[in-house]
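Quick check before the chapter quiz. The format below is the same one you will see on the exam, so make sure you can read both the input and the output lines.
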Amino acid sequence: MTNRLAEAKSLYLRKHAENPIDWWPWCDEALATARAQNKPIFLSIGYSSCHWCTVMEGEAFSDIAIADYMNTNYLPIKVDREERPDLDSIYMQALQMMSGQGGWPLNIFLSPEDLVPFYAGTYFPVDPRYGRPGFLQVLQALRRYYDTEKADLQQRKALIIESLLTSAVLQDGTTTDLEDHELLRQGWETSTGVITPSQSGNSFPMIPYTELALRGTRFNFESRYDGKQICTQRGLDLSLGGIYDHVGGGFHRYTVDPTWTVPHFEKMLYDNGQIVEYLASLWSTGIQEPAFERAIAGTVQWLKREMTAPEGYFYASQDADSFTESTAVEPEEGAFYVWSYSELEQLLTSEELTELQQQFTVTPNGNFEGRNVLQRRNSGQLSVTLETALSKLFNARYGVSSESLETFPPARNNQEAKTTNWPGRIPSVTDTKMIVAWNSLMISGLAKAAGVFQQPLYLELAARAANFIWENQFVDGRFQRLNYQGKPTVLAQSEDYALFIKALLDLQASNPEHKQWLEKAIAIQDQFNEFLWSVELGGYNNTSSDSSQDLIVRERSYADNATPSANGIAIANLVRLALLTDNLDYLDLAELGLKAFRSVMHRAPQACPSLFTALDWYRNSTLIRSTTEQINALIPKYLPTAVFAIISDLPEGSVGLVCQGLKCLAPAESLEHLLQQVEKSQNRA
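Here is the expected output.
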């Protein structure tokens, strides 16, 4: 028997449809029922490809005794964080306030009358273990507390809501007198330190930090860090490490070690878009490492083969776990991706295996539960022998050669994965929903790589996805965040607006003759300003003015996580739009946005690299007006604060005009002269 979630569009919610817990989706009826019955709300937030979310679904949420107690004493609500990042952000911040740490699944207990949290945690086992209490004991203790400790409960909630409100408002932006260039130097140094190789812990891509670190290398800041070397090393770690799927393409989410060897195997669209953009940017600075180009090309092939809907948009993610056989009860982590030594001996010639062992981390004992995750030992071009060996492994995994496999259909759920007659291994489940923000990150990555490598296929994929969003993601004129099988839903949030506008501007930058991308960006920006700009505080709210009724605070996202912050991206967009349109209203908003977050940039530069990227745009913005021929020669170069405009009526004897913010330089008389002006303009210390 199924519960209410059986009708949900979200794959993550549907995964809980057969739990004995009487789950509700987040909705007005659920909140009203909790108030009417005076039941505390148990709110559980996660996402489809989250490993520990899957574990908890199969353990605690499938336990009959826990379900009986939960259904009697709580109103249980399930939320997909990818559908509602606004809810996730608020309650994740509450968890971090209470425990000093975060993560998913996010399990939080709310008072029904005001939705203020009073307790929170992540994974709870059925029985006490891993130093964590058993889930039933937690439920019982918290229900007793809710019923008998009303004074303490109110005091606890008052502290939490005060902290959340204070955090949402921030301090006034006039609290620091630091000059912009020095503030930018501090932000760069902090981000460069964040991505400096570590000897312990997990390894995450952290692209908002790498992006700022790379930008700052052009300033020659005095620092204890060698920024260019550190940025190059991050590119090598990504493209050589086990985080990259050397057989099928695409990047996993992170590695569980400091050596970039063994990944947590899910593949998220948002990581892949950002990494493609970063590796292309590295290449454009002159660091033309063959492994970068190979990783980008392989990722685009994976995207085209496994992650692109027939309509042109991109799917959200692929799970870490997969079944080893159709009769298996539970999927295994990494099963689709790893190789036993005996398999390799069977599939490869002795020459191929020998060279694979020399160039990759392949041993008889393996590096992951007795099997091998492939990690390259050296940079450079792979030999013909190795490419042949990797092609054989592709054939073994997918059951067909890479040349003949145009598309690989997604397994949309566990049942589909187990019952489809796959020619090779059983693949991981793919979450096929379309998320505007994540598609936009991939569009930006493809647009950047298309310009740098002059690859029409990359631009074609990006343009198809952008056109799908433009043509399908509006309901009654309002921009929508998600699309499930052709149906748009959920009002867009700040990250959707900001990242889609950036994607459109990136498409314009890679193909300046096509003005329609700029026109679309202007139209989306108008709606963004109307519904999400904070007139009182500056910057953009996470949610629109007419869809925030169920939120206990209205946040303005400035902190970068796995994805860049909405306000950092949005402020940079405003500067770009001001340059391209000559409309200084955009520049006024950018200035107000930077002022709104200036105190947090000074106080906590480690939290907000994208705001420093926006400050770089604001300080060093450069408009290049020239002919199509000259601009096409500039597109592959690393010009991180430049925009292009094609004009035909240049002054006689000149090849282009360079404008620094609100002033223009003398006409450039040669391409070399133009480049000198541009490089100087982008470093106005």
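If your answer matched, good. The chain has a mean pLDDT of 94.
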